[in-house]
Amino acid sequence: DARVTQTPRDKVTEMGQEVTMRCQPILGHNTVFWYRQTMMQGLELLAYFRNRAPLDDSGMPKDRFSAEMPDATLATLKIQPSEPRDSAVYFCASGLSPGADLSYNEQFFGPGTRLTVL
Amino acid sequence: AQSVTQLGSHVSVSEGALVLLRCNYSSSVPPYLFWYVQYPNQGLQLLLKYTSAATLVKGINGFEAEFKKSETSFHLTKPSAHMSDAAEYFCAVSEGTGRRALTFGSGTRLQVQP
Which of A48, A56, A103 to mutate: most B Cβ within 10 Å? Predict the structure, then answer.
């Protein structure tokens, strides 16, 4: 049963600490998306990749957030330094896009990482 | 630019009653439209999608949605609600070309009363 995995599932940290969230996309998928979900803002797209190359990270605060794909089986989202307003559930999703057009392809979501910054 | 509006952040129905969740979109080109469901403490799961084939789209768990271009709507329906349908539902839009990914609505939480 192929699925997206995310670690850790829960993370509690103190303000100023570095946080790293990891995502393993479904094997064979070539697109990866990072979302943040909060009660106030809903679901926000932070960044996404195709074939490990970043396509758009305009939704991400550049000064403290960074997203990378070291290889095809791992995507990371880092926050340094973390702030209380970063508290949210962070979702990773993956999909298969044969071309540059991502518009009609299903995204498969992971279970999320619940981040609490004190 | 693409956007989605979901009318009603909370909808409550009785078990066995019709479920209607509303979604209106804005897109400068013919859109692709999606409905996702999120159960508590889980990620989103695709219910159905419209990609310019049939305007009435059938999805999983008995849900369906109809694309109405004249009304810029893509409402989600199910004839008879089950307790297990209680979840949050998200409508999403993607413009038909280019590299833009999905834009999600704010979500509608469905409660099913016994």
Answer: A103
Residue A28 makes CB contacts below 8 A (sequence gap 6+) with A96
Q: Is B62 helix (H, G, I), strand (E, B) or coil?
A: helix
Bridge partners, residue B78, by sequence? B19
Q: Could you report the per-residue pLDDT of A4-58, keeping only the tens digit for each?
A: 999 999 999 999 999 999 999 999 999 999 999 998 888 888 999 989 998 888 8
**Beta carbon pairs, A and B, within 8 Å:** 64
Under the banding of pLDDT at 50, 70 and 90, the label for residue A103 is low
| CA-based nearest residue to A110, from A95, A96, A91, A97 | A91
Query: What single DSSP character describes residue B38?
Result: E
**Contact (CB, 8 A) for B49 and B57:** yes
Q: Do B98 and A101 touch (CB under 8 A)?
A: yes
